[in-house]
Write a structure and sequence with these properties.
This protein is an alpha/beta fold. It contains nine helices and eight strands. It has helices spanning 26-37, 45-57, 65-71, 102-111, 115-129, 141-145, 159-172, 179-195, 217-229; strands at 15-19, 40-43, 77-81, 86-90, 93-94, 134-138, 151-156, 208-211. The longest helix has 17 residues, at 179-195. It binds 2'-deoxycytidine-5'-monophosphate. Residues 22, 44-45, 48-49, 108-109, 112, 138-141, 189, 193 line the site of 2'-deoxycytidine-5'-monophosphate.
């Protein structure tokens, strides 16, 4: 299902892991890095969002982990990865455009704390990254999904800065939300992602930390490219 740009593909395909909290700029820099390298962009959050989408579509309670786990064996989930966008096919239907609503966002955070969901999504992610040449972003890429990744980044930024970025994104996408609510949602998700028992959001010991609070996107990507170039 995946396409790879041949243009700048290097001889040895690296796995590049980018982890960090919501609103830190992972997707933006991961896409730019993938484009510059001619690599696949793997948005693992979209997979958790897809499970949340299905759970909601089926009317399964978000408080019932067993019922949520029971949805998984009846699910097919594929990702068509390109350098810019990951298209998500859930049970054969492209739901990419329906994954970034505030409702799916909140539910994805709850669903991602369920061990059975994380276990089920591991091989899905590893299959996409199996051939290398991939920039994968998420919360546990460097620690759990690809602990053998060639390059690992952990992005950080002040909560205020991240909430502002997320709020601007939501407003640009036509959602009418208050900044305070956006900030509460974002910090609530952070707390859940960092404190869950399975694969919490923590930096891999060998990850390179980058604080993006006051760095422009171009500077972050240039720094990452320099780190990657040294490993090619
Ligand atoms: O990156 P995102 O906002 O699209 O992720 C949605 C949710 O999925 C987020 O609350 C945490 C979870 N997630 C995760 O637990 N592990 C990942 N590798 C990616 C996302």
């Amino acid at each position: 299902m995946s396409e790879r740009g041949d243009a700048d593909r290097t001889k040895r395909g690296l796995i590049i892991a980018i982890d960090g909290p919501a609103g830190v700029g992972k997707s933006t820099v991961a896409r730019l890095l993938a484009r510059q390298l001619g690599y696949l962009y793997l948005d693992t959050g979209a997979l958790y969002r897809a499970i949340a989408w299905k759970v909601r579509d089926m009317g399964v309670s978000s408080d019932d982990p067993l019922a949520i786990a029971a949805v998984l064996p009846k699910t097919t989930l594929q990702m068509a990865c390109g350098p810019e966008q990951s298209h998500v096919l859930l049970d054969g239907r492209d739901i990419t455009g329906e994954l970034r609503t505030p409702g799916v966002t909140a539910l994805a955070s709850m669903v991602s704390a369920i061990p059975a969901v994380r276990e089920w999504l591991l091989p899905v992610q590893r299959k996409i990254g199996a051939e290398g040449c991939v920039v994968a972003e998420g919360r546990d890429i460097g620690t759990k999904v690809f602990p053998q990744a060639d390059v690992k980044f952990f992005l950080e930024a002040d909560a205020e800065v991240r909430a502002t970025r997320r709020h601007l994104e939501l407003v640009a996408a036509g959602h009418s939300v208050q900044f305070d609510q956006t900030k509460r949602d974002l910090t609530g998700r952070d707390d859940r992602d960092r404190s869950r028992a399975v694969a919490p959001l923590i930096p891999a010991p060998d990850a390179e930390h980058i604080d993006t609070s006051s760095l422009p996107v171009d500077a972050v990507v240039a720094h990452m490219m320099a780190v990657v170039a040294a490993r090619l």
